[in-house]
Specification:
Low-confidence stretches: 179-185
Radius of gyration: 24 Å
Structural class: alpha/beta
Strand order of the largest sheet: 3-2-4-5-7-6
Number of strands: 20
Shape: globular
Number of helices: 23
Strand content: 15-25%
Mean pLDDT: 95
Length: about 575
């Protein structure tokens, strides 16, 4: 029996175990939507913008471990996915994005809403293809799902011309187990592991640096066991936070530009650094020539291209994080000495992460979130709100944090929270956002309302694009160019001093939430924080926006000035 390409598309989704697809209709995808119509096994979520759609699929994938699936039309529908594709691919999130396309006979003729989305996304995805023959359709979809979830996960884009959707052909579709191109060599390099263990045994000041690869491989418990058996302290990147519980006695903190004092000092003074699942990007290394200057570095990563690309290492190991941790654990014993652990504890006590101010601070808000939500998924936007969350949020097996790490995408947090809630309907989902990032995908409030999603949105409103404003304050002579969100056309062009005379903030987040049918709460005092969070937690079926009015010139500290060593921190 022959079926249309659109019907094969639906059959493929079912074979791949897809139960949720984030989709927005359009002329070149209408046949695909027609085949999805009435399909009980697949929940079609229609957000209000394609960028919100792809971030929601990303949040769904990160929080569930499944492949996130998108469907949009051609032209602007496809190009609106680009930021979300890059966001997910940077952070190794498995997504398969289907785009409608003009008929093959019109490709290259500047047809209405024609773009070459495969070419546009080739550099920001693992796989991008335009299907030009009906007989190639099944293989293209099989390959997309296999590549997206195999090896180092990422994004696959499948562009489907309209005539391919309508053409009849084979109904055969078989899910592939894994993609041969992305298989990791099963035989782990025993000799390299032997060198790594030998270095750790001889170390006086050993340190684990854990990145997002450990969490992607679902190796949190294994990593905790390795740390406990070896007694080696653990620092993390932002994406790696939660690889062991952030309240664990061996956890030091995040490293990098806004890393805590103890973590940055530990990296700077350790003699062996065992890194698992991180790219050593510039956000964590500071001045690369002075990164871990006293250490022999062991670098374990699933992607061979990541090893020694940014930081030269002594022992390179290409392996999946979970498998690597298993091998290290089998050979682990107490490494290093008590004096090293005590030194790190002294640094933590002398220079703790804390905002020593009266009144309502981001630290107090986030610590109240820790107290209120024992079992939750926390998504963040990008900017100061993200950095405060990564500093003060307690992350463990019951409290997960989703954030845009590699690309740093403003507008990510809210739609990602929607996707996480759809994938985990019985888990509390809290979004931490800034006033700037919140407005980038505010239209998804309608999505949360119509699908009855009681997501809790915490907007830290300081009236600025706070992260850039902080850099302008510290490194650009307080020239607040383009960062004041209260600025109006009659304001002075060189204003850099917020006062009570500043114009009202636009929009009124409480009224805006209410206009969508959501709940809105404004918090101006420290004593109101817990009450607002409890009210939101017990609100059913609709989202709640809590607008926290915070200090306008609040800064994220510590900070490593650009071009400096990690130990050259400005503490406050």
């Amino acid at each position: 029996m022959e079926i249309t390409g659109a019907d094969l598309f639906v059959k493929a989704l079912k074979a791949e175990g897809v139960d949720t697809i984030f989709a927005y209709p359009g002329g070149q995808a209408i046949d695909l939507f027609h085949s999805l119509y009435g399909e009980n096994g697949i929940h079609v979520i229609v957000p209000r913008h394609e960028q919100g759609l792809v971030h929601a699929a990303d949040g769904y994938a990160r929080s569930t471990g499944k492949v996130g699936v998108c469907l949009v039309t051609s032209g602007p529908g496809a190009t609106n996915l680009v930021t979300g594709i890059a966001t997910a691919n940077y952070d190794c999130v498995p997504l398969v994005c289907f785009t409608g396309q003009v008929p093959t006979g019109l490709i290259g003729k500047d047809a209405f809403q024609e773009v070459d989305i495969a070419a546009i996304t080739a550099s920001i995805s693992k796989y991008a293809v335009t299907v030009r023959r009906r007989e190639d359709l099944a293989e293209a979809i099989q390959t997309a799902f296999s590549i997206a979830r195999s090896g180092k996960p990422g994004v696959a884009v499948v562009d489907l011309p309209k005539d391919i959707q309508r053409e009849y052909g084979s109904a055969k579709y078989v899910k592939l187990a894994e993609c041969k191109e992305n298989q990791i060599e099963k035989a782990l390099p025993a000799g390299q592991f032997g060198k790594a263990v030998e270095l750790l045994r001889d170390a006086q000041r050993p340190l684990f640096l854990i990145g997002g690869g450990v969490k992607l491989s679902r190796a949190n418990r294994e990593m905790q066991m390795l740390a406990e058996i070896s007694g080696v302290p653990v620092v993390t990147t932002i994406m790696g936070k939660g690889a062991i519980p952030s309240t664990h006695n061996l956890y030091v903190g995040n490293i990098g530009i806004h890393g805590c004092y103890a973590a940055n000092m530990a990296v700077s003074r350790c003699d062996v650094l065992c890194s698992i699942g991180t790219r050593f990007n510039d956000r964590i290394t500071g001045k690369t020539e002075q990164f871990a200057p006293k250490a022999a570095i062991i670098h374990i990563d699933i992607d061979a291209a990541s090893i020694s690309r940014n930081i030269p290492v002594e022992v390179p190991i290409v392996a999946d994080a979970k498998e690597a941790i298993r091998v290290l654990t089998e050979q682990a014993e107490p490494f290093g000495g008590r004096r090293w652990v005590q030194q790190i504890e002294d640094w933590k006590k002398r220079y703790p992460l804390a905002m020593k101010k009266e009144g309502m601070t981001p630290e107090k808000i986030i610590r109240c979130i820790n107290q209120t939500f024992d079992h939750a998924i926390i998504t963040t936007d990008v900017g100061q709100n993200q950095l405060w969350a990564t500093q003060y949020l307690d992350v463990n097996e019951n409290r997960q944090m989703l954030t845009s790490g590699g690309l740093g995408t403003m507008g990510y947090g809210f739609p990602a929270g929607i996707g996480a809630k759809i994938g985990n309907p019985r888990t509390d989902v809290v979004v931490i956002s800034g006033d700037g990032g919140m407005q980038m995908n505010i239209q998804e409030m309608a999505t949360a309302v119509v699908y009855g999603l009681p997501v809790i949105i915490c907007v830290l409103n300081n009236g600025y694009l706070g992260n850039v404003r902080q850099w302008q304050e510290m490194f650009f002579g307080r020239c607040y160019s383009g960062t004041c969100m209260r600025c109006r056309k009659n304001c002075a062009p060189n204003c850099n001093t917020p006062t009570e005379c500043c114009p009202d903030y636009t929009p009124d987040f409480v009224k805006l939430a209410e206009s969508y049918g959501a709940k809105g709460i404004r918090v101006t005092e420290e004593t109101e924080i817990m009450t607002a969070l409890e009210r939101a937690k017990h609100t059913q079926d609709v989202p709640t926006v809590i607008e926290f009015i915070i200090e306008q010139e609040e800064n994220v500290m510590p900070i490593v000035p650009p071009g400096n060593r990690l130990e050259d921190m400005i503490l406050g």
